[in-house]
Amino acid sequence: MRDELNQGLIDFLKASPTPFHATASLAQRLEAAGYQRLDERAPWHTEAGGRYYVTRNDSAIIAFQLGKRPPIEAGIRLVGAHTDSPCLRVKPQPELQRQDFFQLGVEVYGGALLAPWFDRDLSLAGRVTFRRDGKVESQLIDFQNPIAVIPNLAIHLNREANQGWAINPQNELPPILAQLAGAEKADFRALLANQLAQEHGLNADAVLDYELSFYDTQSAAVIGLSNDFIAGARLDNLLSCYAGLQALLAAPDAQSCVLVCNDHEEVGSSSACGADGPMLEQVLRRVLPEGDDFVRCIQHSLLVSADNAHAVHPNYADKHDENHGPKLNAGPVIKINSNQRYATNSESAGFFRHLCLENEVPVQSFVVRSDMACGSTIGPITASQLGVRTVDIGLPTFAMHSIRELAGSHDLEHLVKVLTAFYASPELP
């Protein structure tokens, strides 16, 4: 089971270099399991026992099963995650020609660790909007092959490199794509038009716009002397999306279950498809009872907000509170913050801990050091938007927001097991 889950995650990460591709990959897996796609612009006809999903902006997805038990009595079980990760996004007019090299100007998306982006084999993927036969269309593209690199400056020319230096994103991060000969002119939109033709057989009259991100082409892998770890890009937070999907597909038909994977968490969640937008509430209001009954359903419900946690690093153990240092391969982490950076309270934490104990899943706790700032998740945002009780949890990881992150190879199985139990739980607190 463990090996199968880890390989499934590796395959999912490879198919999901951007939030657009992650959403498409989730939708493909849902449809293969019998989930029916709903169009937000059309009327919906849903029924108890039905399984459905809806996407927005091609980058966020909500999948739900309407249980045979009335949700006004049993509530709904929600698992929340996000599809986006810190990365380098291509600017609108990105062409740079310096010293006969073709480079692209990039903007840093989210709180990325920048140093690991140097000297990596990079590819490019995302969504392209174009005109064809007088109509505006959009299509996902993925170059797949390594087409770019951001070379480091040699130590001989930067003697202070190992003492640390401030990376200037404007000057130092534009990737190199090619060497140009003579008066040759770089045309990025022509490159995209060619990719549309090669990848999809589409002959675009003009490339109008795009949302494209660079990514590392090195595949995720199970590593370590005893295969203790899984390393890969975008573990934050596609690991949680994948775990939530596996749990949802295993959910019995008695309960109403929801998996929501928002976009834009890494930049504040304020968008039409982010957790600070109306997407989840709008979807739920279309499938749950109206008025007072809707509020009653929500108050019978619980959200598990799943986003990775900081494992205690052996080289930097002093960055953790000494009593709250989660370890790799020791189970999911309940994340707690008195200032509501996490939405966990004693009741929601107690219920999640109970689920772990009942299903023989190890469980840990995380509280940030009192002299350090605390990150946040979609948990408090969704709780404030929807009024739903929430517990913030996640798997412990190293190198969060790096181009290559590290998790424990045993922990995915732990998370899937407890989320599956959550979706099947006959009663909520």
UniProtKB/TrEMBL annotation:
<dbReference type="InterPro" id="IPR022984">
    <property type="entry name" value="M18_aminopeptidase_2"/>
</dbReference>
<keyword id="KW-0031">Aminopeptidase</keyword>
<dbReference type="InterPro" id="IPR001948">
    <property type="entry name" value="Peptidase_M18"/>
</dbReference>
<feature type="binding site">
    <location>
        <position position="401"/>
    </location>
    <ligand>
        <name>Zn(2+)</name>
    </ligand>
</feature>
<keyword id="KW-0482">Metalloprotease</keyword>
<protein>
    <recommendedName>
        <fullName>Probable M18 family aminopeptidase 2</fullName>
        <ecNumber>3.4.11.-</ecNumber>
    </recommendedName>
</protein>
<dbReference type="GO" id="GO:0006508">
    <property type="term" value="P:proteolysis"/>
</dbReference>
<keyword id="KW-0862">Zinc</keyword>
<dbReference type="InterPro" id="IPR023358">
    <property type="entry name" value="Peptidase_M18_dom2"/>
</dbReference>
<feature type="binding site">
    <location>
        <position position="82"/>
    </location>
    <ligand>
        <name>Zn(2+)</name>
    </ligand>
</feature>
<dbReference type="Pfam" id="PF02127">
    <property type="entry name" value="Peptidase_M18"/>
</dbReference>
<keyword id="KW-0479">Metal-binding</keyword>
<dbReference type="GO" id="GO:0005737">
    <property type="term" value="C:cytoplasm"/>
</dbReference>
<feature type="binding site">
    <location>
        <position position="156"/>
    </location>
    <ligand>
        <name>Zn(2+)</name>
    </ligand>
</feature>
<dbReference type="GO" id="GO:0008270">
    <property type="term" value="F:zinc ion binding"/>
</dbReference>
<comment type="similarity">
    <text>Belongs to the peptidase M18 family.</text>
</comment>
<dbReference type="GO" id="GO:0004177">
    <property type="term" value="F:aminopeptidase activity"/>
</dbReference>
<keyword id="KW-0645">Protease</keyword>
<keyword id="KW-0378">Hydrolase</keyword>
<dbReference type="GO" id="GO:0008237">
    <property type="term" value="F:metallopeptidase activity"/>
</dbReference>
